[in-house]
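Table S2 (continued). Query chain:
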Amino acid sequence: QVQLIESGGGMVQAGGSLRLSCAASGPTFDPRDWRMGWFRQAPGKEREFVAAISRGDGNRYYAHSVEGRFTVSRDDAKKILYLQMDALRPDDAAVYFCAVSSSVVIQIQNPRAYSYWGQGTQVTISP
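Corresponding output:
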């Protein structure tokens, strides 16, 4: 069993920055053994992939819409996944979720690959 708790959301002006954190816990959870990812969901839209780190070598993956503006990172000792979001735009507003996956078959961008999810944190962008 893995528990994920996001934090760091809030309201920021367009062009500003936020850093989201996702603290993971579980009796035997080791971040290096899991894919860890961020997804977001805006009202009336489907949940979409934002960024992820693969297990092991820690390769990073980004949605085209955030590449160059967002940075995903992981602190293995603290078991925390981060999402640094810079140059925020109004269309980045959403509830952001972190998730972990043990799958090695399903594509890392696919939410179906992920078996544990956090409760989400709201990101609001003001004009």
